[in-house]
Predict the structure.
Amino acid sequence: DTEVTQTPKHLVMGMTNKKSLKCEQHMGHRAMYWYKQKAKKPPELMFVYSYEKLSINESVPSRFSPECPNSSLLNLHLHALQPEDSALYLCASSPLTSGGNQETQYFGPGTRLLVL
Amino acid sequence: AQTVTQSQPEMSVQEAETVTLSCTYDTSESNYYLFWYKQPPSRQMILVIRQEAYKQQNATENRFSVNFQKAAKSFSLKISDSQLGDTAMYFCASNTGFQKLVFGTGTRLLVSP
């Protein structure tokens, strides 16, 4: 089973709202990732959690706040977003059993976010 | 810096035909994985196939196979017996450093009846 689930599928929010995206995997993976993807572009890495600790932050604005409550769950808290933050947000996970450049990432279906 | 290049922005093929998508990459790593991901209109990113760089044998998954030329840093994807469901954006990617995937810009494949 290589399933990563994400909720909600779609989200519309105003610039003053606070919302959260949720990602879950039950494959026993110990690394989880957040990506942002604009239309017709490849995904851009935002954050990486390894063993529930933030290991990579790709200089993402503080209006995006990640959280990893346990090894199966990953959240992305959103606050005071801008219209240019509208995008597909993808979650991924990987086993973290091999060397870093031999990891295979498995993606969830994504959350389509629209900021008005 | 690690780079992945896909030089074909769009390709089209008819059902049942074979199509090859090109990818070149640059890395200083000695051991790494290469991937092809498929993103259909639903936008779920699906792993199609992966290649371990230290393995000389080309990876195969049903109708999908790769031509991995390590010296030339080339990693093409061949889709045999194309089906309508293969219509998607295809991204080539490599692992670089620790846990970071570098993606190419993608090739949009249209399979027509």
Q: What stands out?
A: Chain B has a mean pLDDT of 93.
